[in-house]
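Training component of the fellowship. As part of building independent skills, the fellow (R.M.) carried out the full modelling exercise for a liganded target. The chosen ligand was zinc ion. The inputs are recorded below so that the supervisory panel can assess the work.
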Amino acid sequence: MLEIQIGENNPVLRKKAGRIKKISAEIKRLALDMVQMIESEPDDIGLAAPQVNQSLCLIVVQPDKSKKALVLINPEIKKFSTKKEIMPEGCLSLPNIIVPVERPFKITAQALDLEGNEVKIKAKGLLARVIQHEVDHLHGVLIVDYK
Ligand code: ZN
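Fellow's submitted model of the complex:
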């Protein structure tokens, strides 16, 4: 059972997450539990492993709730557009807090999927934003840091 970690000073939310070296059965299980969690919450569009107390570079994103959640292992953002956009963001780990966050509008990200295949994602708009928000979690960065 996954438990959401709350609070801007929560140590696991402030720590740099470890890279995943092997996509073990435990990692797959964790990823699928995270997918299940996000897919069952109509308002949640992204979740990072540190938010469920696992300091690992694993995120799931689902900006379009009519589609399946996307699992990204060891995600890295390789390119950012110069065009930026400000949008209000919330975070499961910071209930009742909304912060306007300025982020690049388009990104190119690289990651592994659950089978260990390299995936390259060109994203814009909400998908780009949610990937950036979740990758921030892997670096111990929270929306309150953008205030
Ligand atoms: Zn968050």
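The panel noted the following from the submitted structure. The beta strands are 46-48, 58-61, 70-80, 84-91, 94-104, 106-112, 118-124. Residues 25-39 form the longest helix (15 residues).
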